[in-house]
Amino acid sequence: MTAFAETAALWAGMNSDDARARSIVADMFPNERAEFAEQLDRLRAMLADRFGNDIGPSSTPRAQVFAGEGRFLGRQLGGAS
């Protein structure tokens, strides 16, 4: 996974391009998605601490956009198109 893939997924999510965000995340290997999810969790915690907002998991792009079809393998491994 590259920083570009993470950035592109975030950008797509920020712009409500759910299909593109799902596609980018689906192309990641399972361990890459897990690492990305951990990074998003850390950022969410930082936002909550910094601004005093309690933003739960249901308000994050990961819960809304990346939940998708529940793919466990990247597109290349799973053969999804």
Account of the protein in words:
The chain is 65% helix and 0% strand. The chain contains 5 helices and no strands. Helix 1 runs antiparallel to helix 2 (18-26).
Please supply descriptive tags for the structure shown above.
81 residues; mainly alpha; 5 helices; 65% helix
Computed over alpha carbons, the radius of gyration is 13 Å
Structural class: mainly alpha
| Total beta strands | 0
Global geometry: globular
In the predicted model, the low-confidence regions spanning at least 5 consecutive residues are 60-81
Secondary-structure element sequence?
HHHHH
Describe the sheet with the most strands: none
Overall average residue pLDDT = 74
| Number of distinct helices | 5
Percent range for β-strand residues: under 5%
Helix content: 55-70%
First and last CA, distance: 19 Å
SSE layout and pairings?
Elements: H1 3-14, H2 18-26, H3 30-51, H4 61-66, H5 75-78
Helix pairs in contact: 1-2
Summarize the structure.
The protein is 65% helix and 0% strand. The chain has 81 residues and is an all-alpha fold. Helix 1 runs antiparallel to helix 2.
